Amino acid sequence: MNLRNAPFSLAAAGGALLASAVAAFAQDATEPAVEAVTAAVPTLNSGDTAWMLVSTILVLAMIVPGVALFYGGLVRAKNMLSVLMQVLLIACVAMIIWVFYGYSLAFTDGGALIGGLSKAFLAGITPDTLSGTIPEYVFLSFQMTFAAITATLIVGSFAERTKFAAVILFMILWITIVYLPIAHSVWQSTGWLFKRGALDFAGGTVVHINAGIAGLVGALIIGKRTGLGKDLMPPHSLTLSMVGAAMLWVGWFGFNAGSALTAGSVAGLATINTFVATAGAAIGWSLIEWIVRGKPSMLGAISGVVTGLVAVTPAAGFIGPVGAIVLGFIASLICFFFVTTVKNTFGYDDSLDVFGIHGVGGIVGAIATGILVSPSLGGVGVADYGCSPSSGRASARRSSTRSSTSSSACASARKSRAKVSTSSSTASAPTTVKTGWRREAPPAHHTRNNTFQSDETPAPRPGSFFGHAGHG
After folding, report:
1. Each residue of 65-115: pLDDT tens digit?
2. Quick one: 390 exposed, middle or buried, by C-beta within 10 A (0-12, 13-18, 19+)?
3. Do 372 and 413 have their domain in common?
4. How many domains does the chain fold into?
5. Residues 349 and 201 both lie in one domain
6. What's 71's domain CATH number?
7. Are residues 238 and 111 both part of a single domain?
8. Structural domain harbouring 294
9. What is the pLDDT of residue 104?
10. Distance CA 403, CA 45 (A)
11. Tens digit of pLDDT for each residue in 116-147?
């Protein structure tokens, strides 16, 4: 070898070694990133898909025949067909609106109060498009039934005194101007109320409070029924209303447990809560009626059933079974007071007590959710429960294991809104992420809009309902 060229040969050899080492290091460094990206790719889960298909059909059964028979039996016989027709056609109109522009405005990113039109007429969605672990067509169908049932609930407030054409026109405007912005604000990760920590598992705010307030305003503007207070206006068939209430209870499992968006532990929690909250409310309403009026009634019992279902809707996946029983019982007493004393005192004609049951019951449930979600009361907890707004320090137990959380973890949890439990002694210990609907190991979780997200993305809330009987 030429000695004059030796330094250059050594430099070249060293450069080649360095380059290969850097390349190997870069490859090793990128492998975890590639794995992380691969792990974040959503895949279809047949079990979740099957459950969501069943849940969607169950919610449809809540509308027809559930709501239709429930309302139809509570009005006078001469008005039953008109109520049935209104419920059926309102649901159909809501479904068409949902496909045209409703889904896009509610469940796409846009402003804080409304989404965009990127998915108007379901643009860009194919049978293979996934939303989390289920087809997006299944997810949007499930959410479509929520829009449909919310609109049908409202008609109970001004039943027996409105023209069909006026009702349909009102519902088109109401769904567009009121329902879609509220749904986006509460359930979409970019929504105004969502970002402020709203806890609404299955629709306490979006469905029940929304429908109850709309019904009250409608009843006040339209005025009272002709002959109210002079003529008797008893329900013409409590038998049909009982059948309707039973359909509602069965369908509500799709409404609440389906809002977990997966066939897992959170769906199981929502199921038991839907059982026992309803039972507690039916017993509570019957007891208070027994005390006040001397005997319980079928009208009171089914009113209690609906009250319990409404009250547990926002809390179904957040609270424990005992808390659900207490919630249902207390909600029935408060709603009884509103549909009897408050309505008569102020003199408004809320025909089937939509505000008294759905509005008030939804408000009670929403407030109670923020209390009963506490792990100390049997709830699952939320990310920043008990954290001081000013200091960011955790002042309450963070999980059922009673593990502590550092101030930095509390601040991080406030951003992610996923329940994070860390060992106080091991900073590098793996964390457990829990969303409102779903509990799983860290790599990912999804929101009410079922958008697949990484651990760093704000985690949401999950996606209820129902109308009622006149006690006037």
Report:
1. 999 999 999 999 999 999 999 999 999 999 999 999 999 999 999 899 999
2. exposed
3. no
4. 2
5. yes
6. 1.10.3430.10
7. yes
8. 48-377
9. 97
10. 32
11. 999 999 999 999 999 999 999 999 999 999 99
